[in-house]
Amino acid sequence: MISFSRCSEAQKCPVSRRGETHYHVGRGRQCGKMNSLASCLSRVIVLLAVTAVSLSVSSSKWGEEGVLYGKIGGNITLMCNASNDSLVAEWRFNGTPDISWGFFTDIGHLELPHAHHSATGNYSCYSHSGDLLSSVLLRMGYPPGTPSVFCRASDYENFSCFWKSSVETLLPTRFTASYRSRNHMIGVCLQEPVRPNMCSVRKSEFWSSYQMNITEENPLGSSFRLLDVTMQSIVKPDPPENLLVEPIPFAPRRLRVSWDYPSTWPKEPHFQLKFRVQYRPVQHPLWSEVETANLSDIITDAFAGMEHVIQVSAKDFLDAGNWSDWSVEVRATPWTREIDITTPTSEETLTDLGEPQIDNPIDVHTDPLEKVAILISLGIFAFVVLALFLIMGVLIWVRVRKKGMENGMKPDFLSVIHMKALPKVQIL
């Protein structure tokens, strides 16, 4: 059972009356002479003891005067500020006496067992004469859960940690953040009022490790998260900047893409970035992707005449950490040939326009795969032509030889050659 006393002045004690259907209290004033000082002090001690063991209600240090905080599902006890010679007459919730979720005790307390969030509101107690004795605003909620935390570094000199409550407490909440470095140095992670769920560690040590402590606190308690952080594992650059996409003249399937380093990345030669470019036609859902270490690249397989969406991201050149978020989208369309629509539409003109007239510059900027395909086609064509010529030559030779054998020319010819080759002695 949880209780809280709102006796704000010395010597004020709650009193009660038994057997009342409605909830009655007397007006708060100092303990009268009717009761002994010991009796009054004993009541105060009991109330303080009950308050000390309270786990469901808190009021204190959150700067809201006259506000109590209760845990949803807990048992709440509200007590009226009244002196010994005053009797509790009635409790009201937001001005009405109907409090079906609570009951009035013999000593004038209002009990709210297993209180729900709907119990949030203003509770007040009144005397027999209808005078207001005291009032309190009860706010129901939950104690904090363990916060979820992640950290990232946009460069190798600073890093930031971000957190989010794991429980919607419905109550005012605050966070404190601190860290301990590898050499056991303790520091405060700096928070900015405009970004309450973030803190930053400046001038961090390269290749060092830190232990972060993020504590969430509300009127019902506190919870914390410890997170071990190493710089090389949390590096995540900001997206590249100044993305520019341009068509290439006379190249209907190419786009030139260029960008700059993120301004937050240190401009030092040993801290390099690599990049990836993703692109797709606006009408297509699937992305194509290429990687490069340069600050520009040429897309060689764009769809002719179609608008494309292009984005770029960055990562540490040595593959430490994570890829950055994608840059802002930029749209561009490859170069297309302009057609003069003002030309007369006579039959001769249409015939002339229909003839393919391709300038040499287009051949220069064709796709490498197209060049390979053309070379293969030319090689196959040359092989076929050579084979045809060879076959024709063999057929002609066979035909001539056969004809010579039929006419008897070949034996005489061979005999003459043989006679010339023999020595004169053998001839004689």
TrEMBL record:
It is a single-pass type I membrane protein. It is found in: Membrane. GO terms for cellular component: external side of plasma membrane; receptor complex. The chain crosses the membrane at residues 372-400. Its main location: membrane. Residues 73-125 form the Ig-like domain. One of its GO terms (molecular function) is interleukin-11 binding. GO terms for biological process: cytokine-mediated signaling pathway; positive regulation of cell population proliferation. Keywords: Disulfide bond, Glycoprotein, Immunoglobulin domain, Membrane, Receptor, Repeat, Signal, Transmembrane, Transmembrane helix. InterPro entries: FN3_dom, FN3_sf, Hematopoietin_rcpt_L_F3_CS, Ig-like_dom, Ig-like_dom_sf, Ig-like_fold, IL11/IL27_subunit_beta. Signal peptide: none annotated. Residues 239-336 form the Fibronectin type-III domain. Belongs to the type I cytokine receptor family. Type 3 subfamily. This is Interleukin 11 receptor subunit alpha.
